[in-house]
Amino acid sequence: MRSFRNFWRDETGAITVDWVVLTAVVIVMVAGVFVVIQQSVFEDTAGRIGDMITSFF
């Protein structure tokens, strides 16, 4: 029981855990924004390219 209490009260590495969690959240948010932007950019670009091709022919 004493070793569990010592383990629970030990704060060594707590900052590292905080940074890992913070970094993971930022990466997930950036990936989500990238997915949303990527879909709209590719759809818009594909439409413009298609319009340009049909206007030439």
Give structural notes:
This is Flp pilus assembly pilin Flp. It comes from Gemmobacter denitrificans. The chain is mainly α and 57 residues long. 89% of the residues lie in helices and 0% in strands. The radius of gyration is 25 Å and the shape is rod-shaped. The mean pLDDT is 84.
* Unreliable runs: none
Distance between the termini: 81 Å
The largest β sheet comes out as: none
What gyration radius follows from the Cα positions, in whole Å? 25 Å
> What is the helix fraction of residues, given as a range?
over 70%
Tally of individual helices: 2
| Helix/strand class | mainly alpha
Keywords: Membrane, Transmembrane, Transmembrane helix
Protein name: Flp pilus assembly pilin Flp
Transmembrane segments: 12-37
Could you give a short description of this structure?
The chain contains two helices and no strands.
What topology emerges from the helices and strands here?
Layout: H1 2-9, H2 14-56
Keywords: Membrane, Transmembrane, Transmembrane helix
Transmembrane segments: 12-37
Organism: Gemmobacter denitrificans
Record keyword descriptors for this entry.
57 residues; mainly alpha; 89% helix; Flp pilus assembly pilin Flp; transmembrane; transmembrane helix
